[in-house]
Design goal:
With 446 residues, the chain is mainly alpha-helical. It has a domain of 195 residues: SecY subunit domain (Preprotein translocase SecY subunit, Orthogonal Bundle). Helix content is 70%, strand content 5%. The radius of gyration is 24 Å and the shape is globular. The protein starts with a helix and ends with a helix.
């Protein structure tokens, strides 16, 4: 690890990218502690703490504690993620947007601009609804309201403030993706989750001291976390390799290449961390909006939509499966892969090039995506069930672990790709210290 870090530090371009990413994340964490006006933050923080196992606790975890502080970043990156979901679905449904997405960098830039506009609109709506429904309905322990001066003036000013904060977080994420290392949006969410880890550990220690939790239970919780992390790493690294053969090419009297064998690596979880993030983002909005309703039917729905409840669990499983297939279809096109193989003289042994190859790849990818979706759903749901059934107090649950471990693996893979680019044997000099030949071959195959 020390040699790996020292190697990064000796490479100016990679060092600047890593430092830029850390700097942007530091700016985000600083903004989490800048309060928005008009709210009794101590009373709000206490209310959030008392409702840690509800949608408020989940939202507070994703925002890195911004909701408890009622920060200007309280909306965080969620409006941008929601806008991305909507634009991606519309890209599939509307032919003009689909054509625009295939027009290269210019078309992608237009779609990115549409996503930004949608983010502003969604943030404004979420800001008004957050203030008008949950916050103005909350009561402090003394019986007074959490909002100091409720009304439309407070709602409009606060909504504009929160929208500006969300747009700034969106800009931070885009800057990290463009000039740093890793996916900016995912890193912001992961940074918010990790920032809650010390508080979760402190809460577990306090429960241990108060005899609400014994040492055996704490050991089982920690052991379960290690097992879940190991499972995530093992599955995220797993691949289904499709054998590929490349035939000889004869031009005139010259023979180019030879009968070479390679493989097409397909990950079990091609969609990565996107499905649980999208699923949580979709479920948090109605769960939060219905929390303080007085209608008995809507109150029952709100209770069933809280994390760990039966409706929330079934809805999250369904959304994770849906977004796993949807996002995989967005990022991986078997027809294009089959055409590229055919153009370069590659084929799958026993399968005809072209349409049959595309169908074969799509068949395997569909099965892998199904297995990956069930794995993600299991990791996200099982800790919530244990928390609700057995009172496990540790709130750094399966969704948080899945996101943090996935983001860490993706970021490390990008760093290693940068190291490989600048230290590949036979091209740019010797391999980077600490990077074995086996790892080079795996990265080259990926």
């Amino acid at each position: 690890m020390t040699r790996w870090i020292s190697t990064i530090w000796r490479m100016p371009d990679l060092r600047s990218r890593v430092l830029f990413t850390l700097g942007m994340l530091a700016v985000f964490r600083l903004g989490v502690h800048i309060p928005a006006p008009g709210v009794d933050r101590e009373a709000l923080a206490k209310t959030i703490e008392e409702n840690a196992n509800t949608a408020f606790g989940l939202y507070n975890m994703f925002s890195g504690g911004a909701l408890g502080n009622f920060s200007v970043f309280v909306l965080g990156i969620m409006p941008y993620i929601t806008a991305s979901i909507i634009i991606q679905i519309l890209t599939v449904a509307i032919p003009s947007l689909e054509r625009l997405s295939k027009e290269g960098q210019q078309g992608k830039g237009r779609i990115t601009q549409y996503t930004r506009y949608a983010t502003i609109g969604i943030a404004l709506v979420q800001g008004v609804l957050m203030v008008a429904i949950p916050l103005e309905s909350m009561k402090s322990s003394t019986g007074g309201g959490i909002v100091l001066d409720p009304g439309w003036t407070f709602r409009i000013i606060t909504a504009i403030t929160l929208t500006a904060g969300s747009c700034f977080v969106m800009w931070i994420g885009e800057q990290i993706s463009e000039r740093g290392i890793g996916n900016g949006s995912s890193l912001i969410i992961a940074a918010g989750i990790v920032s809650r880890l010390p508080q979760a550990i402190q809460g577990s220690v306090l429960k241990l001291q108060a005899d609400e939790l014994n040492l055996v239970q704490l050991t089982v919780i920690l052991f379960g976390m290690v097992l879940v992390i190991g499972l995530i790493v093992w599955i995220e690294r797993a691949q289904r390799r499709i054998a590929i053969q490349y035939a000889k090419r004869v031009v005139g009297r010259k023979v180019y290449g030879g009968a070479q064998s390679s493989h097409l690596p397909l990950k079990i979880n091609t969609a990565g961390v996107i499905p649980p993030i999208f699923a949580s983002s979709v479920l948090m909005a109605p769960a939060t909006a219905l929390t303080f309703t007085t209608n008995p039917v809507l109150s029952a729905v709100a209770a069933a939509l809280q994390p760990g409840a039966w409706l929330y669990n079934y809805a999250e499983i369904g959304l994770i499966v849906f977004f796993a297939y949807f996002y995989t279809a967005m990022v991986f096109n078997p027809v294009d892969v089959a055409e590229n193989l055919k153009k370069h003289g590659g084929y799958v042994p026993g399968i005809r090039p072209g349409r049959q190859t595309a169908e074969y790849i799509d068949y395997i990818l569909t099965r892998l995506t199904g297995a990956g979706a069930l794995y993600m759903a299991g990791v996200c749901i099982l800790p919530a069930i244990l928390t609700r059934m057995y009172g496990v107090p540790f709130n750094f649950g399966g969704t948080g672990l899945l996101i943090v471990v996935n983001v860490a693996l993706d970021t490390v893979a990008q760093v290693e790709a940068q190291l490989l680019t600048q230290h590949y044997d036979g091209i740019n000099g010797p391999a980077a210290p600490g990077m074995s030949g086996g790892r080079r071959r795996v990265l080259a195959g990926a």
